[in-house]
From TrEMBL, chains A, B:
The keyword Metal-binding applies. Its cofactor is Zn(2+). Residues 10-337 form the Enoyl reductase (ER) domain. The keyword ATP-binding does not apply. This is Zinc-dependent alcohol dehydrogenase family protein. Belongs to the zinc-containing alcohol dehydrogenase family. Keywords: Metal-binding, Oxidoreductase, Zinc.
């Protein structure tokens, strides 16, 4: 099969890879209908994380082509959405709603779903089948559910976005934008998007943002305080992962408020005394996407949400290198790849 | 009046201070019945925080001797308990339950309650009167409610201690010990005290600890994991405030679990990637004691809890220097001072 390999920073190639096969009886093989490039794929692409001939990709939707002997909930032909972490969905951690920290988890990025096929470990616990084959125009939204919607949603839940709350969103990438969608769905009263790009501001408003703040850093914090009676937002979503964005998020939150952070932290250090003085809640990490998939599939197939709107460039898998370039240069918010 | 002044690290003196008087119409003056030395008073005493001729003390119970023209809920003669932060109890932050972050707060430590009298700002919002004059044997428990019980309680709430939960407590000082009491009252199933001192272990068990772990650092984390099926505790109370104790708390918590931290952080730095990888909740800071005072007064006057058991040394105010020495040398867990 064909698949994306990141040879080295900046060097994306699509080449022949060995077809995946069932290894464990709990595995399934899926033919990938659509996959995409994640903001987190840009870290190694930009040399901010070490990389050496790595298969890429951890977001996917597709059709089951083969199942292991112990797979019970899926049949060949099912259209499925899965999380970027595989999970058994039965251990104590999964049952508490943290499937991304399952005691038997595998990071799908190590498998590489920017490819024609993929082996999905713990298929019963990881994949959720849609009711029948979805309409073609729903594919982008279902693909978004695999990570970027789930991650934005988790951030909004972690930030306790809800009725009566003012939510600020740091980061106008796909995750931040879908954090806005999630905050809206969760009933937030006011949603402040922090963005200085006109196209992303427009998408933020499409998903439910009520206010736009263009300032960043201390000026951004001051503006949020100004908009919230000097107190700060109740709920702040951090969807970048840098020291500046984390500080901006923490300092934009009122005492007793909640920061939900999902940007993969790079060289972030939180000062204990500042956190003590802030009196805020901090929660985040790898989103337990699996928890939300049944609800996402319902909302998407009933056309109540359209998270697929974050994809502003679709390319054949063979053109993956151009997709990486477009995201790196911020010419695209989120790139879908079709094998 | 007489009051404690910390001239410099290690140099505690009791000397004449100016009698407090009403400054704002919302003030009250109280005659202090009992006050005490806080673990946090040891930071400047040990030279870990700068100090220069500072009045000391922020815990207190006493009798109202004078009220300002705008004080409405108190009368002269009331026996009152107050928090270590004054608060109006009406602002949006107070109303959300975070009175220790009130927009009009004053830190009582700047006033210094290790004295015969104290001026209490925002008396209506800060003080809660007991139903009548309390029995003398209840004074230590009511004094504990002023800070150390409230702080341990907030830590347990922040750690979401409750039914079905395993709670681990890092720190066997008075706050940690009362965190155990709080976890028990909140219905925790299992409470693991981390302590290597026989007398504190005994008090931990008295307050409700079901297990004792003597190991610290990595070994302590390993022991907590061993006791929790490899997963870590659901809820961890951090009641020390050092880098080691914070790491021990974070690493003892299962994914999705909660750390409640109340040790005033000193040179603590939290690595963003470690926090991301842990998937835990982190909440703490200055405890909103005021929120809990009515319930504390009820529990104490109905003799359902006895937080005053943490006081193992009572001295006249004049002997405050010996009280500081006893706590510094760990000869006493918590010292009560009676003016």
């Amino acid at each position: 099969m064909r698949g994306v390999i990141l040879y080295a920073p900046g060097d994306v190639r699509v080449e022949d890879r060995v077809d995946p096969r069932i290894v464990e009886p709990t595995d399934a093989i899926i033919k990938i209908t659509a996959t995409c490039i994640c903001g987190s794929d840009l870290w190694p692409y930009r040399g901010a994380e070490p990389v050496d001939h790595a298969p890429m990709g951890h977001e996917y939707v597709g059709v089951v082509t083969e199942i292991g002997a112990e797979v019970k909930t899926l049949v060949v032909g099912d259209f499925v959405v899965g999380s970027f972490w595989s999970s058994d969905n039965t251990c104590e951690i999964c049952q508490s709603g943290y499937q991304s920290y399952c005691v038997h988890r595998t990071l799908m990025g190590t498998i590489g779903t920017q490819a024609e096929y993929a082996r999905i470990p713990l298929a019963d616990g990881t994949l959720v089948a849609t009711p029948g084959q979805p309409d073609a125009d729903l594919i982008p939204s279902l693909l978004a559910a695999s990570d970027v919607l789930g991650t934005g949603w988790f951030a909004a839940v972690a930030a306790q976005a809800g009725p009566g709350k003012t939510v600020a969103v740091v980061g106008d990438g796909a995750v931040g934008l879908l954090g806005i969608l999630a905050a809206k769905e969760l009933g937030a009263e006011r949603i402040i998007a922090m963005s200085r790009h006109a196209d992303r501001q427009a998408l933020a408003r499409h998903f439910g943002a009520t206010d736009i703040v263009e300032e960043r850093g201390d000026a951004g914090v001051a503006r949020i305080k100004e908009l919230t009676g000097g107190l700060g937002a109740h709920s702040v979503i951090e969807a970048v992962g840098t020291q500046e964005s984390m500080q901006q998020a923490m300092r934009s939150t009122r005492p007793g408020g909640h920061v939900g952070f999902v940007g993969v932290s790079h060289a972030v250090s939180i000062d204990g005394l500042e956190l003590f003085g802030a009196g805020i809640h901090l929660h985040g990490g790898a989103a337990p996407v699996r928890q939300y998939l049944p609800e996402f599939i319902r909302l998407i197939t009933e056309r109540q949400i359209d998270p697929g709107a974050v994809f502003d460039l679709t390319l054949p898998l063979e053109d993956a290198a151009e997709g990486y370039r477009a995201m790196d240069e911020r010419r695209a918010t989120k790139v879908m790849l079709t094998p």
